[in-house]
Description:
This protein has 20 helices and 26 strands. It is α/β, with parallel strands linked by helices. The strands form 7 sheets. Strands 11-16-15-14-12-13 form a 6-stranded mixed beta sheet, sandwiched between helices. Strands 4-3-2-1-10 form a 5-stranded parallel beta sheet. It has a 5-stranded mixed beta sheet with strand order 18-26-25-20-21. The protein is globular, with a radius of gyration of 26 Å.
Amino acid sequence: MTDPESLLxxxxxxxxxxxxxxxxxGFTVTGPVMAEDATEAxxxxxxGSVLNLFGREGAHALQRIAVEETRLGVPLILGFDxxxxxxxxxxxxxxxxxxxxxxxxxxxxxxxxxxxxxxGLSMTFAPMLDVARDPRWGRIAESPGEDPFVASRLAEAKxxxxxxxxxxxxxxxxxxxxxxxxxxxxxxxxDYAPVDVSERALHEVHLPPFxxxxxxxxAAVMPAFTDLAGVPMTMxxxxxxxxxxxxLGFDGVVVSDYHAxxxxxxxxxxxxxxxxxxxxxxxxxxxxxxxxxxxxxxxEALSRGLVETAEIDEAVLRVLRLKQRLGLFDDPYRxxxxxxxxxxxxxxxxxxxxxRRGIVLLKxxxxxxxxxDVRRIAVIGPLAEARAEMLGSWAGAxxxxxxxxxxxxxxxxxxxxxxxxxxxxxxxxxxxxxxGALDLCRAADLVVLCLGxxxxxxxxxxxxxxxxxxGHQRDLAEAALALGKPAVALxxxxxxxxxxxLAERADALLATWFLGCESGNAxxxxxxxxxxxxxxxxxxxxxSVGQIPLFYASRRSGRPFEAGNxxxxxxxxxxxxxxxxxxxxxxxxxxxxxxxxxxxxxxRQADAFDVAVEVTxxxxxxxxxxxxxxxxxxxxxxxxxxxxxxxxxxxxLAPGERGVMRWALTDADLAILGPDLEPRxxxxxxxxxxxxxxxxxxxxxxxxxxxx
Length: 708
Ligand code: GLC
């Protein structure tokens, strides 16, 4: 008996609640509650899914217990946080977003799914789709950045990559769009803090990536830990049953975050586990992850009439249908087949490509690419030889020993150079043993400063109130810079860091984030010029914490900043503009952006229009241009944002080569949410702006008129 309806009909209440329970096998700890013995829970039929276990043997052993030792033999879903690679670690998601390359986003997800499925996994708790505009929040590292259009394209690519065309295939894993929703707007950037955004911000900023994920066929959704204006997402029936399942037509599984159902008690909305279980079930949460709320509270909730049997059955049916779609009834052991050994070499090449494409050249005063004359290089700073840090947060099954450090990458790329390294200081310690490092700088032709954060200073439960360099890194950097040698500064971090002093004084500055197992090789590829620097900022880079939240698509003010006019929007002690704008990133080429053309320049509702712009590489080196297309609604019934991103595109050009970038758009791309929160392009004038970043100085504009 393997059809969901018959299985459901045969189940006892305990077995039904078991299918709604996911326990952790404890291979890795990702939450505050420690795992009990998953094996016993599975054998007793009290767990229908397991997380945090991977590896063919263990997965098959546990699956065999479920299939052969339980009364109905329902196979398990095995889930894991395959966030940026599995055994082969790719750049953290924020770094991967910097590539603005949907094809790459899909390819890394596909590669990760291959490895995860080889390890017996059938679900990943990814992609994380929280639009993040507050770098104090550590989970910005896992995010697609500040822009909902980018997040939506990433959602589509990741769902395609993880799930492939057939979810029952041996290498397909269920994608989980998370964390539904607006988690990135936590109060004061503090993880798990309350969220209170307007209905408009919810629909303009936070929901679009989830709409895109559902449209792309995401098999599962995970609500956020947080509340939304006082209603915890884990019980938010209007958004889960109403919008997600109702309006968007999502018929997949909603899996809670870790222990989140039980935490409804801490939120102050449930007196105990029965009430918490009832609130979550009625909101449409199917699986209780590591919460034991369903296991310990749902039967009582049923006996007290807080829930109906039909509501339990509906949830169980969705879980069983997902297992059916995953092919688990046909063959519970389909995943876990050994992969092609040659594929792992390809995945490392992909990791190097993805890492390269995540690197953002923020400043280049002419010292990069490294010239042949640079023979002696001092590589100093606590990240110079750091290995584990390069994996970043959520590196799950990644192998530290696989990591190529920055020093190793440079030495491999520059065998004839004299490359010496010293940490100088620890990442966050109080010591300042810089002398040895400074001696290396004195003897060098060029200094590479390897600065930034520890991997654990971003990711979950890792918010920071100060976004400067931890510990004594600034002391070391300033002492090194004072020696007057050409200096390249690399920032390994999970977020933008407020280092205007470093941007000012270093000759070159790069955001190298945490780039995964191929970090050192990718950094060397860019520093040597073997590859162009093609990464662009997926988040606005603030000068100081006081500016946060700072993002390009801000709504206009009635008193926009005007130098010299006191009564305009400004700070007394800080500039309004960011250190580096959204989309910023230099190339080794020199691109000239021609005029933007739009055809037709006047259109009616539902008409299509084309935008084109010529790009010429006026430089002496080949490079890749990335252009962004923004739309600015000049006048609407609701105050429009400054502008909104509606396209991005990349074009590789040889020196002297000219190319044309084109976008095919419709009036839907002009739409913003009207007073009723419905998308509408109102007749009137629009500016189409194309350029290399959200900085108005880089944008070429043309006017388009929409007539009724
Ligand atoms: C964590 C995270 C979530 C993750 C889950 C399982 O607490 O919030 O993103 O998927 O638990 O590890």
